[in-house]
Design brief:
It contains 10 helices and 8 strands. With 261 residues, the protein is α/β, with parallel strands linked by helices. It folds into 2 domains: 13-130, Rossmann fold (3-Layer(aba) Sandwich); 150-260, Aspartate/ornithine carbamoyltransferase (Rossmann fold). Helix 6 runs parallel beside helix 7. It is globular and about 50 Å long.
């Protein structure tokens, strides 16, 4: 199976078919094996990539830089204070300028609209390293991990996500699970469920792929029979003032030894 994904941006999983997602997962697995075996071929020699961060990160930055360098690309990092984007120049202008200098742009920051604008005006591929709404590159990494640690194909996996299910990870995991035909349960208080419109859309996608999308409040019910149990931070960047409230409301959804019995 092969696909021509050349020059495609990677903004959200909604833009990709299940076969295209599986192709990316298979490619990731092959690249990982080649790196460990010392047989990786550098296919990005002579390419220049900029990673544009409006939010700080450890793992996302390191992952993109190491992967690009392993493939032979040159990387420029622009941090939260290193660009005039959205200050003295518009997002469109930033996209056009970077697109003339670089062969690809990775963005990590705030609104999904920003990364969509970059992709529209840059003229080069743009990759979403996290927005408020979606985190698609993380889902590829997580689904690869699931495949490595389970004998089941993804469309047979029962998968429970606990915690703040309305954040970018809750959204993206639900979208990915729906696309790949998984049994996905978002387990959270109702106030932390994903947007109803996205849930309805993903339930239709899951219906076509053979999967299911369900919302539950009871943690025990959510993890019952699950092959994978997943959680995320309860307080996202910019929500530090809600720390105590989040702990109080989400503590029953903590993944601990008692829940996993």
């Amino acid at each position: 199976m092969s696909f021509n994904l050349r020059n495609r941006s990677f903004l959200k999983l909604l833009d990709f078919t299940p076969k295209e997602i599986q192709f990316l997962l298979d490619l990731s697995a092959n690249l990982k094996k080649a790196k460990y075996a010392g047989t990786e071929q550098q296919r990005l020699k002579g390419k220049n990539i900029v990673i544009l961060f409006e939010k700080d990160s450890t793992r996302t930055r390191c992952a993109f830089e190491v992967a690009a360098l392993d493939q032979g690309a040159h990387v420029t990092y622009i941090g939260p204070s290193g660009s005039q984007m959205g200050k003295k120049e518009s997002m469109k202008d930033t996209a056009r300028v970077l697109g003339r200098m670089y062969d690809g742009i990775e963005y990590r920051g705030f609104s999904q609209e920003i990364v969509e604008t970059l992709a529209k005006y840059a003229g080069v591929p743009v990759w979403n390293g996290l927005t408020n709404e979606f985190h698609p590159t993380q889902i590829l990494a997580d689904f690869l991990t699931m495949s490595e640690h389970s004998s089941k194909p993804l469309n047979e996996v029962k998968f429970c996500y606990l915690g703040d299910a309305r954040n970018n990870m809750g959204n993206s995991l639900m979208v990915g699970a729906a696309k790949m035909g998984m049994d996905f349960r978002a387990c959270a208080p109702k106030a932390y469920w994903p947007e109803a419109s996205l849930v309805r859309e993903m339930q239709q996608v899951a219906k076509a792929s053979g999967g299911t999308i369900s919302l539950v409040e009871d943690p025990r019910k959510g993890v019952e029979g699950a092959d994978v149990v997943y959680t995320d931070v309860w307080v996202s960047m910019g929500e530090e003032d809600q720390f105590e409230q989040r702990i109080k409301e989400l503590l029953p959804y903590q993944v601990n030894a008692s829940l996993m019995k």
